[in-house]
Amino acid sequence: MWQAIALSFGLAMDATAVSAARGLARHTARDLLLLPLLFGGFQSGMAALGWLAGAWAGRYIARYDRYVAFGLLLLIGGKMIWEAVRGGPDEDGDDASSVATYLALAIATSIDAAAAGITLPLVPAAPWLSLLLIGTITAACSMAGYGAGRAVGHKLGASLEVLGGVVLIAIGINMLIQAG
Fold this sequence. Notes:
Elements: H1 2-25, H2 29-86, H3 98-117, H4 127-156, H5 160-179
Helix pairs in contact: 1-2, 1-3, 1-4, 1-5, 2-3, 2-4, 2-5
């Protein structure tokens, strides 16, 4: 069981960092619930796909996961910086693209979970329990990360959206470095 918990926290860290970065720029209660639900659901779902795909898809997922995640984080981080510089959508308004952005972030942060899902049969806990832990822990960590980013963002101002974009790009670059 401890291995499943450790795996869950390890997989949750990217989503937590991305949630904190988004919390710097966005300040709505809807986002506080939407991000953790998407991130937890996608982490668990991608791990389930990895588990089901097994050895066949493992080498393909592992070969490209970092590059896909890097590309998505670069695009979304760049978009955040662009909107901050040009005075993008009102931070408290209903940004119609936020759900699409959050879906892209959920995919970017959960691609590694698909590769990790292949290892679920090796974890002493039942795979369904591991999947439940992955989703729940990711959602909880993402909520905490978003809340922390939001608290800092309220104190330091809306210009922190640039910092949030830079953090997303840095996470993507770190993924590329780890792949190399």
